[in-house]
Amino acid sequence: MGSVADKIARKVATQIRSNVIDLSAFRASRERAVEASLDGSRFKDLVEQGYDPAFAFYAQGLTLVSMFAEAISAMPEAKGYAKAVAKAEDEYVPEGPPISPLTASHFNLWAFFDLQFGSSRETMGTCILRVAETTGMPAWIADIVRPMQESRMGFYVHMGLDGGLGGPLVLLKDIVTQQVLRCHSATGYLGETGQLWYARLLPPPIPDIGHHVVVTTPYAVLDGTEQRFLDYIGREVARMTAAGGRKAVDAETLLKFGPTANHWNEYIFLAYVNHQPDAIFLAGVPDIRESLPQA
Description:
By secondary structure, this protein is α+β, with helices and mostly antiparallel strands. Helix content is 42%, strand content 15%. It has helices spanning 4-17, 40-48, 53-73, 79-92, 104-113, 124-134, 139-150, 226-242, 251-257, 263-271, and strands spanning 153-162, 169-174, 180-185, 196-202, 212-214, 219-221, 272-276, 279-282.
């Protein structure tokens, strides 16, 4: 029968051939695909407005993903997905502080690339990649969607700043991989050395851009330390692995999908302390309930 992604891709391909739907908006000719194989007009507009090139690349990509997601969500095969997103929206009201500590940027990236549905545990991102492959869409679509699909939220230690022509970059160490990455913070928040950030990073989209981009509003964990959260990750991974019928689970799986679909949304909701325009402050560890301010 194939996966949910296969079923959706076959249906879209059939509808394109029969002219039931028109996905021309998702296509770009080689003549129009300029900077990083994107439609150049919007990309250049964002850069000219002062946006970081890496951020501009992914901002354009998210517009594309939103268009795909809207079309796919209406299909019967994605009914479970649409229901899960609607329920999470009702529960967490992701409009950012002061309405909710969940921002639209965090929630949308979670909904598109982390929320699994169907028996084959697809995400909207894996479905879009399958549709692009099946229908022969331009390669740049997969090039922009794949790094977003492969991304995850993570905990990062602030290692200081690295100066640059476009402004300071934040040095962030992934506590799981121990990799130190040079990052543009899209909100402009630069933080302080030693802080623990909970954020989603996306890689340099093209070789000419030599830094990652923090695409979500940074969540700074005020009482967070690297060891405290490594200990938590170890405990949670052990619990997930021991749960009925699960395959071996690693830290990457935990950080991307959580033990439950809304695990990380719930953590942000319960850990919220305060905010400022460019950052949100949290406290506590997910499995120590008394440490969470809103528990």
